[in-house]
Amino acid sequence: MFLREADLDVHREGERVHLTPEDAGGIAREARVRELLVTRVGSTLSRESATVRAAAAFGRSTDTAREGDTRII
Q1: Who contacts 46 (Cβ-Cβ below 8 Å, separation ≥6)?
Q2: Residues with Cβ < 8 Å from 41, sequence gap 6 or more?
Q3: How far is 5 from 73, CA to CA, in rounded Å?
Q4: Alpha-carbon gap, residue 51 to 12, rounded angstroms
Q5: Which of 15, 49, 63, 64 is paired with 70 by a 20 to 30 Å CA distance?
Q6: What pLDDT, on a 0 to 100 scale, did the predictor assign at position 32?
Q7: Contact 6, 41 (CB under 8 A)
Q8: If you compute the radius of gyration of the chain from its CA atoms, what whole number of angstroms results?
Q9: What integer pLDDT is reported at residue 47 of this predicted model?
């Protein structure tokens, strides 16, 4: 499982501090992980849209972390 933030809707000119959902999904794809968990979603995105966009870039199972959730792997 790969944990990444998806804090931005789009990058601002010259700014590459945080990731978009597409960045998170692309990094997970390149790392060849089995599952992506989006850990932080910025205020300009909904959890649902960030997860869908990250999954599209990743091409595999993607979910969003929620406070209090647990998962046994």
Answers
A1: none
A2: 5, 6, 7, 47, 50, 64
A3: 20
A4: 21
A5: 49
A6: 96
A7: yes
A8: 12
A9: 93
In this predicted structure, what is the pLDDT of residue 73?
65
Q: What b/e string do you get for 36-50 counting C-beta neighbours within 10 Å, with b at 16 or more? A: bbbeebeeebeeeeb
How far apart are alpha carbons 8 and 18 in whole angstroms?
7
Q: How far apart are the two ends of the chain, measured CA to CA in Å?
A: 9
d(CA 26, CA 54): 8
3-state secondary structure 3-70: EEEECCCCCCCCCCCCCCHHHHHHHHHHHCCCCEEEEEECCCCCHHHHHHHHHHHHCCCEEECCCCCC
Which mean pLDDT values do the consecutive 10-residue runs of the chain (73 residues) have?
A: 90 81 96 94 93 96 87 69
